[in-house]
Amino acid sequence: MGNTRADELKLKLNELSNSIEPKLSKQLDLEKCERNINRLAEFSSECDACLQNFSDFENHLSQLLNQKESINKQDIKTHTKVIRQIETHLTDQHDLVSSGHYTGIYMSIGLSIGLLFGLVIFDNIGFGLPIGLAIGLAIGAGKDEEAKKKGKVI
Ligand SMILES: [Zn+2]
Q1: Is residue 129 scored above 70 in pLDDT?
Q2: Burial of 150: CB neighbours in 10 Å, binned 0-12, 13-18, 19+
Q3: Alpha-carbon span 101 to 48, nearest angstrom
Q4: For residue 107, how far is its CA from the centre of ligand 1 (angstroms)?
């Protein structure tokens, strides 16, 4: 795929972003959309699924642009689903992670361990939770930073 097609799609995305309320733009997570587009374009010459996802996203975006005055909850839901599907493919097949991926994972691990330790050692959940959370956050943020350096974050 030439870069032109990706550029055109990003122009459309920009057009949508300029013609809707900032709040809606945030709900649609248009910044993330642009990153997804870049990745799909990057892999589409060697991956059919990426090319397919790209084409699907083109259609989806045209549809959103056509009805930009009347984007409703259902449309946002569909949009979120489309984005998630693209991300799932990128993470499963292309070894990428979404932004904040590790922080999310390690935070929940930290919380569970903190809960357990709080109960077992201190006999007090309130003791373990913040410690577990802090450790989880630190490890997760470090791993996210590392992934970012490697260019693995979508
Ligand atoms: Zn792919």
Answers
A1: yes
A2: exposed
A3: 26
A4: 29
